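Box 3.1 A note on notation
Throughout this textbook, protein chains are presented in two layers. The first layer is the amino acid sequence; the second is a C-alpha coordinate string describing backbone geometry. Keep the layers aligned when reading.
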Amino acid sequence: MVQVMEMSPEARVELERMARSSRLPHRKVVQATALLELADGASVRSTAKLLRTYPNTVAAWRDRFIEAGVAGVGVIASGRGRKPEIAPAAIEAIVDDTLHTVPDDGSVCWSTRTLGAKHGVGKDTVQRIWKARNLRPWQVDTFKLSNDPNFEAKLADVLIH
Protein backbone atom coordinates (compact mmCIF):
# COMPACT_ATOMS: atom_id res chain seq x y z
CA MET A 1 0.00 0.00 0.00
CA VAL A 2 1.29 3.46 -0.95
CA GLN A 3 1.52 5.97 1.86
CA VAL A 4 0.40 9.50 0.95
CA MET A 5 2.94 12.20 1.80
CA GLU A 6 1.49 14.90 4.05
CA MET A 7 1.92 18.61 3.29
CA SER A 8 0.27 21.84 4.37
CA PRO A 9 -2.06 23.74 2.00
CA GLU A 10 0.47 26.60 1.88
CA ALA A 11 3.26 24.22 0.86
CA ARG A 12 1.01 22.70 -1.82
CA VAL A 13 0.23 26.13 -3.29
CA GLU A 14 3.93 27.00 -3.38
CA LEU A 15 4.89 23.66 -4.95
CA GLU A 16 2.18 24.07 -7.60
CA ARG A 17 3.56 27.52 -8.42
CA MET A 18 7.08 26.08 -8.69
CA ALA A 19 5.94 23.15 -10.86
CA ARG A 20 4.28 25.54 -13.36
CA SER A 21 7.19 27.98 -13.49
CA SER A 22 9.11 28.58 -16.68
CA ARG A 23 11.70 30.77 -14.92
CA LEU A 24 12.86 28.64 -12.02
CA PRO A 25 15.78 26.23 -12.46
CA HIS A 26 14.73 22.93 -14.02
CA ARG A 27 15.70 20.95 -10.91
CA LYS A 28 13.21 22.92 -8.79
CA VAL A 29 10.40 22.38 -11.28
CA VAL A 30 11.04 18.64 -11.49
CA GLN A 31 11.35 18.23 -7.73
CA ALA A 32 8.16 20.21 -7.10
CA THR A 33 6.35 18.04 -9.64
CA ALA A 34 7.62 14.90 -7.95
CA LEU A 35 6.52 16.08 -4.52
CA LEU A 36 3.05 16.92 -5.79
CA GLU A 37 2.78 13.45 -7.34
CA LEU A 38 3.77 11.88 -4.02
CA ALA A 39 1.26 14.05 -2.16
CA ASP A 40 -1.46 12.88 -4.56
CA GLY A 41 -0.74 9.26 -3.64
CA ALA A 42 1.66 8.16 -6.36
CA SER A 43 4.42 5.74 -5.41
CA VAL A 44 8.10 6.64 -5.46
CA ARG A 45 8.66 4.17 -8.31
CA SER A 46 5.84 5.49 -10.49
CA THR A 47 6.91 9.09 -9.83
CA ALA A 48 10.49 8.22 -10.80
CA LYS A 49 9.28 6.54 -13.97
CA LEU A 50 7.07 9.52 -14.85
CA LEU A 51 9.94 11.98 -14.40
CA ARG A 52 12.58 9.68 -15.95
CA THR A 53 14.76 9.54 -12.88
CA TYR A 54 15.66 6.97 -10.23
CA PRO A 55 13.51 5.95 -7.26
CA ASN A 56 16.40 6.70 -4.88
CA THR A 57 16.51 10.25 -6.22
CA VAL A 58 12.75 10.76 -5.69
CA ALA A 59 13.04 9.30 -2.18
CA ALA A 60 15.88 11.74 -1.41
CA TRP A 61 13.75 14.67 -2.65
CA ARG A 62 10.88 13.45 -0.46
CA ASP A 63 13.12 13.12 2.61
CA ARG A 64 14.62 16.58 2.07
CA PHE A 65 11.11 18.06 1.75
CA ILE A 66 10.00 16.36 4.97
CA GLU A 67 13.09 17.73 6.72
CA ALA A 68 13.35 21.26 5.24
CA GLY A 69 9.95 21.96 3.67
CA VAL A 70 9.56 24.04 0.54
CA ALA A 71 12.88 25.79 1.24
CA GLY A 72 14.69 22.50 0.56
CA VAL A 73 13.26 22.03 -2.93
CA GLY A 74 15.95 22.34 -5.60
CA VAL A 75 18.75 22.97 -3.13
CA ILE A 76 22.06 21.42 -4.09
CA ALA A 77 23.61 19.74 -1.07
CA SER A 78 26.89 21.16 0.17
CA GLY A 79 29.93 19.39 -1.19
CA ARG A 80 28.14 18.55 -4.43
CA GLY A 81 28.84 20.04 -7.83
CA ARG A 82 31.98 21.16 -9.56
CA LYS A 83 34.84 22.31 -7.37
CA PRO A 84 36.60 25.62 -8.10
CA GLU A 85 39.77 25.10 -10.08
CA ILE A 86 41.50 28.39 -9.34
CA ALA A 87 43.11 29.17 -5.99
CA PRO A 88 41.80 32.09 -3.92
CA ALA A 89 45.31 33.61 -3.98
CA ALA A 90 45.24 33.67 -7.79
CA ILE A 91 41.82 35.35 -7.74
CA GLU A 92 43.12 38.03 -5.37
CA ALA A 93 46.18 38.56 -7.58
CA ILE A 94 43.94 39.06 -10.63
CA VAL A 95 41.75 41.54 -8.75
CA ASP A 96 44.81 43.39 -7.43
CA ASP A 97 46.35 43.66 -10.90
CA THR A 98 43.02 44.82 -12.33
CA LEU A 99 42.72 47.61 -9.79
CA HIS A 100 46.33 48.71 -9.31
CA THR A 101 48.43 47.99 -12.40
CA VAL A 102 48.38 48.49 -16.15
CA PRO A 103 49.69 46.15 -18.86
CA ASP A 104 53.30 46.38 -20.02
CA ASP A 105 52.22 46.77 -23.65
CA GLY A 106 51.14 50.39 -23.12
CA SER A 107 47.40 49.70 -23.00
CA VAL A 108 45.25 51.88 -20.78
CA CYS A 109 43.62 48.93 -19.03
CA TRP A 110 43.72 45.16 -18.89
CA SER A 111 41.80 42.99 -21.29
CA THR A 112 40.58 39.58 -20.19
CA ARG A 113 43.06 37.92 -22.55
CA THR A 114 46.16 39.86 -21.44
CA LEU A 115 45.38 39.46 -17.74
CA GLY A 116 44.55 35.79 -18.23
CA ALA A 117 47.84 35.22 -20.04
CA LYS A 118 49.76 36.93 -17.22
CA HIS A 119 48.19 34.69 -14.57
CA GLY A 120 47.94 31.49 -16.59
CA VAL A 121 44.15 31.31 -16.67
CA GLY A 122 41.59 31.62 -19.45
CA LYS A 123 39.85 34.80 -20.53
CA ASP A 124 36.50 33.43 -19.34
CA THR A 125 37.90 32.91 -15.84
CA VAL A 126 39.03 36.54 -15.71
CA GLN A 127 35.61 37.63 -16.97
CA ARG A 128 33.83 35.62 -14.24
CA ILE A 129 36.08 37.14 -11.57
CA TRP A 130 35.41 40.67 -12.85
CA LYS A 131 31.67 40.04 -13.07
CA ALA A 132 31.48 38.59 -9.57
CA ARG A 133 33.19 41.70 -8.17
CA ASN A 134 31.48 44.19 -10.50
CA LEU A 135 34.85 45.28 -11.96
CA ARG A 136 34.87 47.14 -15.26
CA PRO A 137 38.44 48.26 -15.94
CA TRP A 138 37.51 49.74 -19.32
CA GLN A 139 35.22 52.30 -17.64
CA VAL A 140 36.85 55.35 -16.15
CA ASP A 141 34.94 57.45 -13.63
CA THR A 142 36.74 60.76 -13.85
CA PHE A 143 35.76 64.36 -14.43
CA LYS A 144 38.06 66.52 -16.50
CA LEU A 145 38.15 70.20 -15.69
CA SER A 146 39.07 72.56 -18.50
CA ASN A 147 42.16 74.75 -18.22
CA ASP A 148 40.49 77.42 -20.39
CA PRO A 149 40.67 80.81 -18.55
CA ASN A 150 37.12 81.63 -19.76
CA PHE A 151 35.71 78.26 -18.68
CA GLU A 152 33.46 79.62 -15.91
CA ALA A 153 31.87 82.20 -18.22
CA LYS A 154 31.30 79.61 -20.93
CA LEU A 155 29.88 77.13 -18.40
CA ALA A 156 27.50 79.76 -17.04
CA ASP A 157 26.45 80.63 -20.60
CA VAL A 158 25.71 76.95 -21.36
CA LEU A 159 23.76 76.44 -18.14
CA ILE A 160 21.64 79.59 -18.61
CA HIS A 161 20.65 78.80 -22.20
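The chain has a mean pLDDT of 89. The first helix runs from residue 9 to 20.
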